[in-house]
Design goal:
By secondary structure, this protein is mostly beta strands. The chain has two domains: 2-216, Neuraminidase; 217-302, no CATH class. It has strands at residues 2-3, 8-13, 25-30, 38-44, 54-60, 63-69, 83-87, 95-97, 110-117, 123-129, 138-144, 152-157, 163-169, 174-179, 186-191, 198-202, 208-215, 220-229, 232-241, 251-257, 264-272, 275-282, 292-299. The strands form five sheets. Strands 8-7-6-5-9-10-11-12 form an eight-stranded mixed beta sheet, with no helix packed on it. A four-stranded antiparallel beta sheet has the order 1-2-3-4, with no helix packed on it. Strands 13-14-15-16 form a four-stranded antiparallel beta sheet, with no helix packed on it. Strand 3 and strand 4 (38-44) form a beta hairpin.
Length: 302
């Protein structure tokens, strides 16, 4: 989700499966911070035999930006090319750039999390991929100087064991919370300008992932993440300092399942006036018998 100030918009995969069917990325918007929603348009329509399911979203010069990829729906699940979609009318119509200029040797990546921008007009996002079954996944910090058509690899982070990287810019640095490939915990990295990354260590235990990072104010950030430990599938949070050095103890925000769900999480959190809005998804979990998206309104402690 992204907060424009006047509205909240959410980009979602519009089929209740884990990438097994053809599907688009829809744009939904709310003018009352998530209480009521309306469908605005299709941010990324799928190609025949494939879907759009991987998302990074943000704002750029008043436009809504979505960077996406997907997979084919056959048994091989081939990764589809990365696209960049833009909307200047509140998500109603979208211009989709399907022929991005990407770094050499990185022909296809999986974008994740937020698209950030700076005062120079540069865009930043992260993308990852695994190059074979024997190699762990690798995460790249990408920059575009032309509004999202040409992307360069500014750096790599995660030491060859990372994917699904949540990115945020505080007043002093970039923070990147990555999911590890081997035991699936969240690991934190910090960088001044996105060139070199300092390893700040783990933020969660094994099978607690993926992450979202949200700026609270100049001194604090919020981490929301999924717990996927058997017997407790849940959404949890921690509050950290803006440099990522200090963190509160974990707090369970919402228990999603005591054992029925097989997949859950991918939280995205926005904050307005101490009120948080967290979106998440879950696999079939009675009484809801399909993949579904849920929303939580909650108050920031203190």
């Amino acid at each position: 989700m992204v907060d424009t100030g006047a509205e909240v918009f959410c980009i979602l995969h519009n089929a209740p499966t884990h990438g097994e069917s053809e599907a688009d990325l829809e744009c939904w918007a709310s003018a009352d911070f998530g209480k009521n929603w309306e469908k605005r348009g299709i941010a990324a329509p799928h190609e025949p035999g494939a879907n759009r399911m991987h998302i990074a979203a943000g704002l750029y010069n008043g436009e809504w930006i979505v960077v996406s990829s997907g997979v084919s729906v056959d048994e091989k699940k081939a990764l589809q090319p990365m696209w960049c979609s833009r909307s200047s009318d509140g998500g109603r119509t979208w211009a989709v750039d399907k022929h991005l200029d990407l770094p050499k040797r990185l022909p296809a990546l999986i974008p994740f999390g937020r698209v950030l921008s700076n005062n120079k007009g540069h865009l930043f996002c992260t993308g990852y991929r695994a190059f074979s079954r024997q190699e762990p996944s690798r995460t790249y910090f990408l920059r575009s100087k032309d509004g999202g058509h040409k992307w360069s690899k500014r750096s790599e982070l995660g030491k060859g064991d990372s994917n699904e990287c949540a990115l945020i810019r505080t007043h002093e640095c970039y923070l990147a919370a990555t999911r590890t490939h081997f035991d699936h915990h969240i690991h934190l990295y910090r960088s001044r300008w996105g060139r070199y990354w300092r390893n700040l260590g783990p933020l969660t235990l094994s099978m607690q992932h993926p992450a979202d990072l949200t700026r609270i104010d100049d001194s604090r950030v919020l981490l929301t993440y999924a717990i996927r430990n058997r017997g407790c599938f849940a959404i949890a949070y921690r509050i950290g300092s803006s440099d990522g050095a200090r963190w509160s103890a974990p707090v369970v925000l919402k228990i999603l399942s005591a054992g029925n769900a097989l997949d859950c999480g991918y939280p995205s959190t926005l904050i307005r006036n101490n009120t948080c809005l967290t979106a998440y998804y879950s696999s079939p979990n009675p009484p809801i018998n399909d993949y579904h998206l849920g929303l939580i309104h909650w108050q920031m402690p203190g």
